[in-house]
Design a protein that fits this description.
Oligomer: single chain
Strand content: 5-15%
Largest sheet: 7 strands, mixed
Order of helices and strands: HEEHEHEHEHHEHEHHHEHHHHEHHH
Number of strands: 9
Radius of gyration: 24 Å
Bound molecules: iron/sulfur cluster
Number of helices: 17
Mean pLDDT: 88
Amino acid sequence: MNESVLEKLKILVESAKYDVSCASSGTSRSHKKGNIGSAAGWGICHSFAEDGRCISLLKIMLTNYCIYDCAYCINRRSNDIQRATLSVTELVNLTIEFYRRNYIEGLFLSSGVVRNPDYTMERLVRVIKDLRLVYRFNGYIHMKSIPGASPELVNEAGLYADRLSVNIEIPNEKSLQMLAPEKNFQSVFTPMRYIQQGVLQSAEERKRFRSAPRFAPAGQSTQMIVGATADTDKDILHLSSALYQRPTMKRVYYSGFIPVNSYDNRLPALKQPPLVRENRLYQADWLLRFYQFKVDEIVNDAYPDLDLEIDPKLSWALRHPEAFPVDINRADYEMLLRVPGIGVKSAKIIIVSRRYSNLGAEQLKKIGVVMKKAQYFITCRELPMQTIHEVSPDAVRRLFIKKTGRNVDERQLVLQFED
Ligand code: SF4
């Protein structure tokens, strides 16, 4: 790889790292003498395929020049940072070279806006088109669609990308226009609509002709920045819930606001990104997508923000003691899912296993139920234990805050969903 491309690569993967809408990012752990590997600077992130397979992606921008001046972005035009642009050929060769060396299995491609949205989008499309048609690249491609790009270019992108995404960034139009004056909801939602139309139309055509081309088969995703504005978790989750009603929206990503432009007084002065809040939003998002919760049950006028001390499912259960205890041997699937300590997998196994015998605490443990949590919310074959009614919701809450024994900063590292 020649020196100039290497230099551009360093700049452009660094610029791309703040976009979390493909998955892991923002890690700053660099190489240490005597150790193998480094988590910083080289722009390889991981995404998960529909079958659960983890795929490594080259996460890079075509250019970090930008004509826009979004207050929250490191690449905004008013920042004095190192800039670089890869040509279409350089980016294609780089991807193929990394793929052949087995460094990556796919590409996550984004870009700053140069000249105008269509000019930029056209170059992005040329990259993925060359990869597919010239190099027969069959790996995963996630491409960011540029807000304001024309429908023809979005339609062409959908023929070569597995997933397309347009970032909303700010969940409220007024705040978006204050922080990103060149953007508005229309410039974000219009390309989302084009993508949706493309996916649905291609699905229809494929019903009639099996050889009809597929359009963005992995659907679309988006990202919202958390903590850059006064928007509550209710505002954020209501928007996510509405987006999930759209048939092609697969994932909403939440990115704790990183104050990269601390000089801009339109932004809050945060010492560190609100990672605990980001984690709680992911857990709430999980409840919407897999646990059959309605958004109003998680956040509403009385509880506009998620509890940072406990996960949203436990928080809901403590606010609704009247729904418990749940009889494990009789409750329907939906109610089992609401029990803290019972996940989707455990609920399914319970439904099958109880056909053969009444389940008790020992079996539930074997099934994978987290009994130290579930015990306050269930009855099973044994007599009820100390349920939430004997212990009181407040006492259970205190017990869990004490049990986790972690302060808020440490808990930001607990990224898995707590059933
Ligand atoms: S358009 Fe994108 S790259 Fe340009 S300043 Fe805004 S967020 Fe940054």
